[in-house]
Design brief:
Elements lengths: L1 H15 L3 H34 L5 H11 L4 H12 L14 H25 L3 H9 L4 H11 L1 H16 L3 H7 L9 H10 L3 H27 L5
């Protein structure tokens, strides 16, 4: 219990003293996970909506694959991204392994199935006649899709929160593709693991608290946006 209290005190000291290393790690974590989440939103919402609206053979299998991907282990993603970006791998010529770009790619792969699965379920639960009504009012198919996405905006904001939460808290892929390089690819989760392995539990607890607070603040903002205009 004393160790936890010491960690909480350490967290306040590190954050409010504006420790340059901790602030840098925190902002870098937010940057990497934020960009990865945005990429996953673009891909996940587009593909999730397409799968929901289009009828094709084997659709149930595709949906099952998407739902399975929502629980994709980060360490597995890290392994395959590392193999593909390794110097002898298919994309080794890019020379981006152990860089922030590799971390963004890995985190985007982790978040995309989460966003896609929630988007798919959100669009599918909309009334089937709604599409016909929108088309009957003279809307193009693109306008119809955009209207459906707006109708599902509440669960889609939940997809944003789920996607961001999934990547800001992961550690396996970040260590494997980023290398936990100080001042370059170190994020809050990898720094926590490192400090724990060194026996610096107070610092590890402090970093964990900062991570939790940051995730809470981001989700608080998104929740206010989500709940601003709730349907009556």
């Amino acid at each position: 219990m004393d160790l936890i209290i010491e960690g909480i005190v350490k967290a306040f000291l590190l954050f409010f003293s504006l420790d340059s290393e901790v602030i840098g790690i925190t902002l870098f974590s937010l940057k990497v996970s934020g960009i990865a989440t945005l990429i996953s939103l673009f891909i996940g919402i587009s593909l999730g909506t397409a799968v929901a609206l289009i009828r094709f053979p084997g659709k149930k299998i595709v949906v099952s694959l998407i739902n399975t991907g929502m629980g994709l282990p980060p360490v597995v993603v890290g392994l395959f991204v590392t193999i593909f970006l390794w110097r002898n791998g298919p994309f080794g010529f890019l020379e981006i392994l152990y860089t922030p770009s590799a971390m963004i790619i890995a985190q985007a792969i982790i978040a995309t199935p989460i966003v896609m699965g929630i988007t798919l379920a959100s669009v599918q639960q909309l009334p089937g006649k709604l599409r016909l009504q929108i088309i009957a009012l003279g809307a193009t198919r693109l306008q119809m899709v955009w209207t459906l996405i707006k109708e599902a905006k509440l669960p889609l904001l939940a997809a944003v929160m789920a996607g961001f939460g999934g990547v800001i808290s992961e550690v396996g892929a970040s260590i494997m593709v980023g290398g936990n390089i100080k001042g370059y690819t170190r994020v809050l989760t990898t720094a926590t693991v490192m400090e724990t392995s060194k026996g610096n539990f107070d610092i590890a607890i402090a970093l964990s608290i900062i991570l939790l607070v940051m995730a809470f603040l981001v989700n608080l903002i998104l929740t206010f946006v989500q709940q601003r205009k709730r349907p009556s």
